[in-house]
Amino acid sequence: MSDGYYYTSKKSDDICPDVCGQDSPTTLSMSRLRCMLRGLDLKALIFLVVFVPMFIVGAYLHGQKITYFLRPLWQSPPKPFIEITHYYHENVPMEDICKLHGWEVREYPRRVFDAVLFSNEVDMLKIRWKELYPYITQFVLLESNSTFTGLPKLHNFALNRDQFKFIEPRLAYGNIAGRDKKGENPFFEEAYQRVALDQLLRLAGIEDDDLLIMSDVDEIPNAHTINLLRWCDDIPHVLHLHLKNYLYSFEFQIKHRSWRASVHRYQSGKTRYAHYRQSDYILADAGWHCSFCFRHISDFIFKMKAYSHSDRVRFSHYLNPTRIQDVICKGADLYDMLPEEYTFKDIIGNMGPIPHSYSAIDLPSYLFENPDKYKYLLPGNCKRENG
């Protein structure tokens, strides 16, 4: 105290100086909080209380969409394929068809091995093998007692083997136990099973220059494509197949190409069974890829949890049967994802449900031979059985 002024050691408050000098610490703290809020701009307060939480929730719910939409900023498109024009007509001799491709016709056709890893796609496997049957030397199938994600599963092919008596004399079948490593990247288990398939191929008797079809069960080369490649000389050692791409059935055709299926001229010690890009060459219009083309809703749920991209099931309601049925009939995305494209133009242009197609021209012939059995795969029949 000097010259009539009161001195205090407490720090003064520039916003609310009247708070200072309060006796109770609790009262002092609450008062300071009120003063701080009084000093904030109203717009800033609304932003903090409303928009920041909304941003956090939105990023959680739609973070995957944001990442896919911004894909052109962080990932460049892959090197384009060298497209090989595909010539075919049922009334033109094979010698002339080979020459149209720039190849010579062989004196006798190559042997052809069709090798697949099998999970539960019984209908698609039968459609595939009925399509390819006339030209396949050996059908090779491997199945495991677990999925790529480590979920236990039945040996579904063994349980349905009676449906495939027509290929029994030409079948090399094997099964293996899964590695049972929970939480591991599913692609490790997938790679393990593909190595086992390599071993099964050797046991099946594959030799140098035999043709080997590498594709998933639902990636079906058309029969005349395989007949062309087995009869023509000088074809590339590895040739990818451009397949028409469908989702849920042959009613919903996707714009972007399916290219992972491939045909190899087998080379001992070099050829390895894989499902990624292995060549720059691709043959146009060589078959069909029908992804998630299941009869039963339960099969949709199983695959969503079982295959290598199971991390896309970000919320439990994605597996709701009613939702899945609604998504199928709309031609929408099971995972509520944006298109996997490399330019903003393609992403925006392909957003939304897939347009319905009412064309059933040039599909696997076995569908038309058994329309009642496979009605769910034809246009206009989106309803699925519960299973």
From TrEMBL:
GO terms for molecular function: beta-1,4-mannosylglycoprotein 4-beta-N-acetylglucosaminyltransferase activity. It comes from the Eukaryota. PANTHER family: BETA-1,4-MANNOSYL-GLYCOPROTEIN 4-BETA-N-ACETYLGLUCOSAMINYLTRANSFERASE, BETA-1,4-MANNOSYL-GLYCOPROTEIN BETA-1,4-N-ACETYLGLUCOSAMINYL-TRANSFERASE. Keywords: Membrane, Transmembrane, Transmembrane helix. The chain crosses the membrane at residues 40-61. Pfam families: Glyco_transf_17. The keyword Lyase does not apply. This is Acetylglucosaminyltransferase. InterPro entries: Glyco_trans_17 (IPR006813). One of its GO terms (cellular component) is membrane.
